[in-house]
Design goal:
Structural class: alpha/beta
Family: Belongs to the OMP decarboxylase family. Type 1 subfamily.
Strand content: 15-25%
Pfam family, one: OMPdecase
CATH architecture: Alpha-Beta Barrel
CATH topology: TIM Barrel
Protein name: Orotidine 5'-phosphate decarboxylase
Number of helices: 11
InterPro entries: Aldolase_TIM, OMPdecase, OMPdecase_AS, OMPdecase_bac, OMPdeCOase_dom, RibuloseP-bd_barrel
Bound molecules: ligand LLZGTKA7
Helix content: 40-55%
Number of domains: 1
Keywords: Decarboxylase, Lyase, Pyrimidine biosynthesis
């Protein structure tokens, strides 16, 4: 099991300046693990990754690639040069696409640098079973779909999956204990769920064996983001 003791903060901001202001609230010795997703990357580009890395923070680049294998391989080759710690694709792109992503990352990683971890999204945590069956026309249970995608991801040689904490135990027993389960949809008790459907508290996610938790709005939109982060970190680290 991997267990990353810091919650990954989802930097879902529209501008580079918003990120600078947000990070400035933290003590400079506090090294964070942050997630850069589509909104920020499309707005600020590779420069924001370089900025965050230069401050000593770890980066999960959450672009969820999903295209034909050749395109994904070429894109991963380019992204590998950014020096991020982890990135991802959609498992729905299939085994060939995921293997191509892995190859692209390996080819693009500069000599002597570590190849970023590569994980695949199973079913988004904003998807319920009813939504999956209706919109994707998948007529199995949500858990079966998630486990299917996790096994496909393992067969393609990736490091793990993005899933809800609710599926971690099932995925680990269908793959292996070292297969990464990174879980968004984390909500401290009493906080707004928003568009998330499959949620869990930080302590329950820890108990069930999540390796990484991703937390966005409960931190970024809190009145005091530093205190919100510390509270969630303490809850996640308590065993
Ligand atoms: O299945 C998924 C995959 C990715 N995400 C991302 O995680 C954060 C969650 O933010 P919250 O504000 O804590 O809901 C967000 O950036 C998503 O793009 C996910 O939620 N679920």
């Amino acid at each position: 099991m991997t267990y990353e003791p810091r919650p990954i903060i989802a930097l879902d901001f529209p501008t580079f300046d918003d990120v600078k202001n947000f990070l400035a609230k933290f003590d400079e010795n506090e090294k964070l693990y942050v997630k850069i997703g589509m909104e920020l990357y499309y707005s600020a580009g590779p420069a924001v990754v370089e900025y965050v890395k230069a401050q000593g923070h770890s980066v999960f680049l959450d672009l969820k690639l999903h295209d034909i294998p050749n395109t994904v391989q070429s894109a991963m080759k380019v992204l590998a040069d950014l020096g991020v710690d982890m990135t991802n694709v959609h498992a729905a792109g299939g085994r060939e696409m995921m293997a191509a992503a892995r190859e692209g990352l390996t080819m693009g990683t500069p000599a002597g640098k570590a190849v970023p971890k590569l994980i695949a999204v199973t079913q988004l945590t904003s998807t319920s079973e009813a939504i999956m069956q209706r919109d994707q026309n998948i007529q199995t249970s949500l858990q079966e779909s998630v486990v299917h995608y996790a096994q496909l991801t393992a067969e393609a040689g990736l490091d793990g999956v993005v899933c809800s904490a609710q599926e971690v135990a099932l995925i680990k027993s269908a793959t292996n204990q070292d297969f990464i389960c990174l879980t968004p949809g984390i909500r401290p008790a009493g906080s707004a769920v928003g568009d998330q459907k499959r949620v869990m508290t930080p302590s329950a996610a820890r108990e069930i064996g999540s390796d990484y938790i991703v937390v966005g709005r409960p931190i970024t939109q809190a009145e005091n983001p530093v205190i919100a982060y510390q509270n969630i970190k303490n809850e996640w680290q308590r065993k």
